[in-house]
Amino acid sequence: MCFIDLNHQIDLLIADMALPTMPGLEVALLMRSKIPHLPVVLTSAHPVKGWNNQDYGDLERLGSQVAFLRKPFQAQELLKAMFELLGLSLGNETARTA
Q1: Would you call the peptide bond into 72 cis, given omega within 30 degrees of 0 as the criterion?
Q2: Residue bearing the bigger pLDDT, 1 or 78
Q3: Whether domain 13-97 has CATH 3.40.50.2300
Q4: CB 15 within 8 A of CB 40
Q5: Rounded to an integer, what distance in angstroms lies between the CA atom of residue 81 and that of residue 54?
Q6: Would you kindly state where each structural domain of the chain is located, as residue ranges?
Q7: Residues 6 or more apart from 11 whose CB is under 8 A from it?
Q8: Mean pLDDT for the chain?
Q9: Which of residues 94 and 71 earns the better pLDDT score?
Q10: Cβ neighbours of residue 74 under 8 Å, at least 6 residues apart?
Q11: 67 Cβ partners below 8 Å, 6+ apart?
Q12: Which pTM was predicted?
């Protein structure tokens, strides 16, 4: 069971597709049921082409505001995805994290 404390602001969800108790897609769907426009970054060591039909259906149900990063990925890739989903500009952040 997943508990969502809506007394705190949640700006972005980062979840792995293979979490120990609940797949990241299920977590994302649960969070989206409470916070409809929550941006989501999904990560996985497996390519999307290896997903099953349920995964594809769940991803489609999530709709927009979703990024997928295949592990291993660089910190800069995660930052870029986060900034894009949040509608922010990287600006000089690139130089500081490189």
Answers
A1: yes
A2: 78
A3: yes
A4: yes
A5: 24
A6: 13-97
A7: 39, 86
A8: 85
A9: 71
A10: none
A11: 39, 40, 41, 42, 81, 84, 85
A12: 0.81
